[in-house]
Design brief:
alpha+beta; Uridine Diphospho-n-acetylenolpyruvylglucosamine Reductase, domain 2; Vanillyl-alcohol Oxidase, Chain A, domain 3; globular; binds flavin-adenine dinucleotide
Length: 331
């Protein structure tokens, strides 16, 4: 195991992750490789009265620590048990590794829309897969956790016999956002389809995926700028890595989402003093009856909590909680 102190060569690289708007400021970094290293790191924090934080990729950084940083990126072994249909991933493993090792066996994990996200952080937050409504949360598939205190050193979880999926995306000019949001909201969505609607500046994007065929004609309410929809290997639908950048984001879980409240949220986001990308994820089906929708907001800079709260105000009566995932650089 390597240990880094401020000023050491490698200290900055080790504490840096996908989030470039915020970085941990640790007194010491333990770049762990084994469960014993994690124990040593936690022990060091406890004996010095310091807080500790864990970082694998930095995608889900919320608040920066000034104590001990446990960097797990080297602890990233992935093993597939084809007979049992399971995978075991070390604390620092990312989905791309599992996707690559599982695919030759016709197996897939319930990973999300970015393959460089960490398996453990994602799963601890529930894990909303691109096939979430069809198969439920990634956390539903966990068979075993290996832990040292509150640090998970490895996870064992079920893989699914998924090979090809029907998946794609459609883009519209943002001036048709009202019509697209209307259509998305009134879509008589089969339980096996997982869609997402996102505003991205000048465009509105709808993505969708399922292991079974379905059609998206209901969404053709405006000229389609660009469309791609086909049967493809699951790994292709499971997202491409993005370059590191600065972003702040938060979300709300809703027990209902009336169309007028959704349109109001969209309008507030579109007219905000901050650039806000608004995403809508319908829940339900295999995800259960706890919440009907998730609205997530992402901005390409920090310090926009107030503007995000203004958008959430439009759906406030329906809020039942927050997802631990989709919270970025926010307490
Ligand atoms: C571009 C992008 C796409 C995303 N897509 C999806 C998606 O499709 N579906 C979805 O559900 N989520 C998605 N997320 C959210 C993501 O799952 C969370 O941000 C998750 O926390 C990232 O985990 P990480 O290990 O990669 O990040 P890190 O920032 O390294 O870790 C995040 C947090 O997870 C906890 N953690 C990590 N490892 C451990 C451990 N070994 N033991 C204990 N706690 C630990 C810690 O609290 C840590 O602060 C996305 C995020 C981004 C930025």
């Amino acid at each position: 195991m390597q240990i880094f102190y401020p000023g050491d060569a490698g200290y900055d690289d080790e504490r840096s992750g996908f989030q470039t708007g915020l970085r941990h400021e640790p007194q010491v970094i333990f770049a762990v490789e084994t469960a014993q290293d994690v124990e040593d790191a936690v022990g060091h924090a406890e004996s010095h009265g310091l807080e500790h934080a864990v970082q694998a990729t930095g995608h889900g950084l919320t608040t920066a620590t000034t104590g001990v940083l446990i960097s797990t990126r080297r602890m990233n072994a992935v093993e597939i048990d084809t007979a049992a249909g399971t995978a075991r991933a070390g604390a620092g493993a990312v989905w791309q590794q599992v996707l690559e090792q599982a695919a030759p066996h016709g197996l897939a994990p319930l990973s999300g829309d970015a393959s460089d996200v960490g398996v453990v952080g994602y799963t601890l937050g529930g894990g909303f897969s691109v096939l979430a409504r069809e198969f439920g949360f990634a956390s539903d598939r966990v068979r075993k956790t290996e832990e040292v205190g509150d640090v998970v050193t490895a996870l064992e979880f079920e893989l699914l016999p998924i090979d090809q999926v029907h998946a794609g995306e459609m883009f519209f000019e943002v001036r048709y956002a009202r019509e697209v949001f209307d259509a998305f909201h009134t879509w008589d969505l089969p339980g096996h389809v997982t869609p997402a609607l996102t505003t991205l500046g000048d465009v509105v994007r709808v993505t969708f995926a399922s292991t079974k065929p379905f059609d998206v004609d209901h969404l053709r309410v405006a000229p389609v700028l660009k469309e791609e929809f086909s049967a493809k290997p699951f790994a292709e639908a499971a997202g491409k890595p993005l370059p590191p950048h600065a972003y702040q984001g938060d979300n709300v879980l809703l027990q209902d989402l009336p169309l007028d409240a959704l349109q109001r949220a969209r309008e507030i986001a579109a007219n905000s003093s901050a650039e806000i990308f608004l995403g809508v994820l319908p829940l339900g089906a295999a995800l259960g009856t706890g919440a009907t929708h998730l609205i997530k907001l992402i901005s390409p800079r920090l310090g926009v909590e107030e503007q995000h709260e203004e958008v959430f105000e439009a759906v406030r009566p329906f809020v039942v909680g927050r997802s631990r995932n989709f919270r970025y650089a926010v307490r």
